[in-house]
Amino acid sequence: MHVIKVLDFEDSELKHVPMEIGVLVSLQHLSFSRTHIETLPIELKNLTNLRSLHLELIEGPVSIPREVRSALSKLQVLRFYKTEVNVVDTNLFGHEKSLLGELDYLQYLDYVTLTITTVDNVKNLLNRHKLCSITREVLFDLCEGLTSFSFSSFRSTSCLAVSFRECKSLEELTVNGNEHMGEGLPSENVPNLNFSSYDQWIKNLHQVNLTFCDRLKNMTWLIWAPNIKKLSIICCDSMEEVIGESEIGVVGLQNDLCILSGLESLFLRCLPKLRSIYKHVLSFPCLKYMSVLVCPQLKKLPFDSESGKNSLRTIHVDRPWWDTLEWDDPTTRDAFFRYLR
């Protein structure tokens, strides 16, 4: 038993981690992702050879005793995407603090997925350049008081996926650090960016998810993210446009061909004010799957007969809504009919 190096409880019904796990001193990889645990036992402090710890997609908050930090000193991979993880100081009567503040002690860490739940922790993340640089996925969850977020301040060249969930105060997402950053965020040190700088920060971004962000009106900043593969916008009550043409005019974009040119999957659901994806035709050369449900104000798609020509496989829609769409050319409508599901 002592020579076990990998222990994976992922997708199990586990609720309590047995204290006996502390005898597995050779353990290097440990996963509790998609389980039901609430706390890690203090005996984990004995696992000083641990290299990888996965705590993703756990519904409730997970507590880690502060004493366990010694076992994490050699960690290279730490994943807690869509899980709130707090460190408990047992010497201070159970006082909790976010795990984010403890990551500075992990000098070997080079791969992180994060969940951020407060404006203070957004600020903490943006002030930690190394942490930003090794973050692969991040969920901003709730973050009450966060009104605006600039990707230029994130300064991550490795992040593949960004999600915002139930950020009820969020009104603006931008790539320009000179724009208003919102309460509690360090806008004063953000550099003046040109296109090459935008590209540096977000060229590797592959996935963006928005859920229950009721004040956001558009996602025009996506024009600077040509490699987005998956875009999901769900239950955002104020969303009017995915790409706003008037705002594109401000930045002087000359070519529509690059807009969402890498997109493979598009999910638009429960968007009562959505009127437009984009005012002009988009080529969508990589688009494979599109789902549009409960978007009653959306009357036209940015398609012509060449859109998604060699890639599109499935369009998931309500058929009565599809029948009311406006088309410049009836042959375009007929061409896409075969993809309906």
Describe the protein's architecture and organization:
The chain is of the alpha/beta class and 341 residues long. The chain is built from seven helices and 17 strands. β6 and β7 (95-98) form a beta hairpin. The chain is elongated. Mean pLDDT is 87; it is low at 178-198.
Considering the chains and any ligands shown, give keywords for the structure.
single chain; 341 residues; alpha/beta; 12-stranded parallel sheet; 3-stranded mixed sheet; 7 helices; 13% helix; elongated
- Alpha carbon gap, first and last residue: 51 Å
Q: Overall pLDDT, averaged? A: 87
What Rg is obtained from the alpha carbons, in whole angstroms? 22 Å
Q: What helical percentage do the residues reach?
A: 10-25%
- Tally of contiguous helical segments: 7
Q: What overall geometry do the principal axes of the alpha carbons give?
A: elongated
Q: Largest sheet, described in full?
A: 12 strands, parallel
Give the tally of β-strands.
17
Low-pLDDT windows of residues: 178-198
Q: What would you call the structural class?
A: alpha/beta
Order of helices and strands: EEEEEEEEHHEEHEEHEEHEEEHH
Strand content: 15-25%
Q: Order of strands across the widest beta sheet? A: 1-2-3-5-8-9-11-13-14-15-16-17
Please describe the topology of this protein.
Elements: E1 6-8, E2 29-31, E3 52-54, E4 62-65, E5 77-79, E6 85-89, E7 95-98, E8 111-116, H1 119-126, H2 129-134, E9 135-141, E10 148-150, H3 151-154, E11 161-165, E12 172-174, H4 195-202, E13 207-211, E14 230-234, H5 245-251, E15 265-269, E16 289-293, E17 314-317, H6 319-323, H7 330-337
